[in-house]
Amino acid sequence: MPKPCAFCAIVAGDAPAHEVHRDASTVAFLDVKPIFPGHVLLVPREHVTTLADLPPHQVPGFFALAQRLERAVETTMDAPGSLVLINNVVSQSVPHLHLHVVPRRPKDGLRFFLGPRHPYPDTNEADAVAERIGAALRAGPDDGRG
Fold it and tell me: How many CB atoms lie within 10 A of CB 108?
């Protein structure tokens, strides 16, 4: 039997959370293992695993709220910046779409995802990758994973 979704339990009110927002389509709450104090997670009420799974009509509201959360976290935590991040599958600790808003400060030591870098060997390889991604984007919403 699969493990119950921790975020669905929070959405349903069956698990405790330090909520900062709740509406008809989303819930936002403090991360239980924050990178820094003020680290907030935003989840859709509907159980979807990745950003690609979020119904298109929910995307504008989800990201408008993410913008508001970014400002609120920075202001409240007196942070000059923030990290806004979504992991899809890889490094996704809970398989329910969640957007992180993490307050940032200069020299805060957070470097974990910025390396190692893997540059293209030459301009031709970069051009080929850009063309393949562009072609997939022009092909439409079916990404072939379904």
Answer: 14
Shortest CA distance to 7 belongs to which of 34, 37, 42?
42
Tokens for 102, please give them.
Answer: 């993490």
| Closest residue by Cα to residue 86 from 96, 97, 71 | 97
Q: Which amino acid appears at position 45 of this protein? A: R
Q: What's the whole-model pTM score?
A: 0.86
Q: How many CB atoms neighbour CB 27 within 10 A?
A: 21
Is 47 among the catalytic positions?
no
Catalytic residue among 18, 98, 100, 118: 98
- pLDDT tens digits, residue range 36-92? 999 999 999 999 999 999 999 999 999 999 999 999 999 999 999 999 999 988 888
Structural domains of the chain, with CATH = 6-110 (3.30.428.10)
